[in-house]
Amino acid sequence: MGIKRFKPTTPGLRHAALCDFSELTKHTPEKSLLSPIKKSGGRNNYGRVTSRHRGGGHKRMYRLVDFKRDRLDDFATVVGIEYDPNRTTRIALIQYTSDKAKSYILAPLELKTGETVISTNADNAEIKAGNALPLSKIPLGTAVHNVELYPGRGGKIARSAGSSAQLIAKEGEIAHLRMPSSEVRKVNINCRATIGQLSNVEHETQSIGKAGRNRWKGIRGQSRGVVMNPVDHPHGGGEGKTPQGNPHPVTPWGKPTKGYKTRTPGKYSDKFIVKRRTK
Questions:
Q1: Disulfide engineering: 228 pairs with which of 19, 34, 82, 232, CB 3.0-4.6 Å?
Q2: What is d(CA 170, CA 140) in angstroms, rounded to the nearest whole number?
Q3: Is residue 210 situated within a structural domain?
Q4: Are residues 135 and 178 both part of a single domain?
Q5: How far apart are CA 96 and CA 148, in angstroms?
């Protein structure tokens, strides 16, 4: 796995830094684990744009990833590491030994083709990348990903490229996790998590090089508020180039932006947060 740079033969390649996909061992997806995706173009069921700057993009199929890992005490062999267009990390195709059923899981950094993984509740389970266990069976200090917020609901935390949470404490029925954002949070000790840090660590160092690469992803270009008319944006209007004015900057709907806190006061999950990611 690495970052590939190019000779500056075109303006789009001059600053491009893209993944070389050297970690992939399987390049065609498993057809039985694919599902079609319908694009919305950012529109809701009334046909109104509720999420701007979306549209176009390459056609994709959704990979049915197993976030629950609820097939217990059944060893599975890693068939290959694949690219998933719907997420930043890589996915691993595994095949269970008992009935040869196949499944997709999120691929940890250390996972290799031919290795075996298991999801279990056993006390003597091996602590290695790809194995899924309850937090109660995982040693302190271990890096984990795909962590459940509630037992049995499937992993929700630490699922993007290179991310992992760290198990730092256990108190009775509660485990303390340090999130990728540095927030410390309480989670039920019976929640399941997968061992290891997720793959594609160098994703954040990529540079797309040209606007067209974002169009392939279904991301359309944005216009700055200061170049719009006053009817379209609070920053708009004025003769020639005009500064934002005061009290700005704001969103198109007049809410303060660039650092304005939008978290709901007294949210139900406040009681689970031990240390916030902001001071």
A1: 232
A2: 8
A3: no
A4: yes
A5: 23
Residues 85-126 have pLDDT tens digits of: 999 999 999 999 989 999 999 999 989 999 999 999 998 889
Q: What is the pLDDT of residues 28-66, one digit of tens each?
A: 999 999 999 999 999 999 999 999 999 999 999 999 999
Instruction: Please check whether residue 136 is in contact with residue 192, taking contact to mean a CB–CB distance below 8 angstroms.
Output: no
The predicted pLDDT at position 248 comes to 80
Is residue 255 in some structural domain? yes
Which amino acid would we find at residue 190?
A: N
The share of the chain scoring above pLDDT 90, in percent, equals 91
Instruction: Please provide the DSSP assignment of the chain as one string.
Output: --EEE---SSHHHHS-EEE--TT----S--GGGEEE----TTB-TTS-BSS-SB------EEE-B-SS---TT--EEEEEEE--TTSSS-EEEEEETTT--EEEEEPBTT--TT-EE-B---TT----TT-EEEGGGSPTT-EEESEESSTTS-EEES-STT--EEEEEEETTEEEEE-TTS-EEEEETT-EEEES-BS-GGGGG-B--SHHHHHHTTB-----GGGS-TTT-TT--SSSS----TT--B-TTS-B-SS---SPTT-GGGGGEEE-S--
Same domain, 258 and 150: no
pLDDT for 2 beyond 90? no
How many domains does the chain fold into?
A: 2
Q: In the structure, what pLDDT confidence band is assigned to residue 130 with cuts at 50, 70 and 90?
A: very high
CATH of the domain at 156: 2.40.50.140
CATH code of the domain covering residue 231 = 4.10.950.10
Q: Evaluate whether residue 221 is within a structural domain.
A: no
Domain assignment of residue 208, yes or no: no
Q: What is the pTM of this model?
A: 0.92
